[in-house]
Amino acid sequence: MILKVLVVDDEAPVREMFEELLKKEDFRISAVATGEEALETVKKEDFDVVLLDIKLPGMSGLEALKMLKNLKPNMIVIMITGFGYDDELIRKSKEYGCAGYIGKNMPITQILSNFKLYIKNAKETIK
């Protein structure tokens, strides 16, 4: 089964990196720059997974996470961050339904393996 993934990051190089990486793995990819765009896109189209930057202009990634999960509770949302790990932020995002965290500075192989692991674990939880 080919999964549809929405990448949400305000930095074009990061969006492009995730797009290239995931297309090579045969995922179908769309990308937007803001939380607001992500919500509008998800209202119009179904996605299996959203890769969501925690730091976004306007609506924060945490706010977007909460709204996305309210809109589509079974959609898998994985947070991406370039700012390290903040315990309070992690606790809140897990409370809102985040499936996991990926650091933008991780090696590509680790990004990919974590991404697949979070999807697998989230699917098992949804069943």
Question: Can you put this structure into words, describing what you see?
Answer:
With 127 residues, the chain is an alpha/beta fold. It has one domain: Response regulator (Rossmann fold, 3-Layer(aba) Sandwich). The chain is built from 5 helices and 5 strands; from the N terminus they run βαβαβαβαβα. It has helices at 12-24, 35-44, 61-71, 87-95, 108-126; strands at residues 4-8, 28-32, 49-53, 76-81, 100-103. Strands 2-1-3-4-5 form a 5-stranded parallel β-sheet, sandwiched between helices. Strand 3 (49-53), helix 3 and strand 4 (76-81) form a beta-alpha-beta unit.
List the helices and strands and how they pair.
Elements: E1 4-8, H1 12-24, E2 28-32, H2 35-44, E3 49-53, H3 61-71, E4 76-81, H4 87-95, E5 100-103, H5 108-126
Parallel strand pairs: 1-2, 1-3, 3-4, 4-5
Helix pairs in contact: 2-3
Contiguous uncertain segments of 5+ residues: none
**Shape, per Cα inertia axes:** globular
Strand arrangement, largest sheet?
2-1-3-4-5
Q: Into how many domains do the coordinates divide?
A: 1
* Main β sheet profile: 5 strands, parallel
Helical content, roughly?
Answer: 40-55%
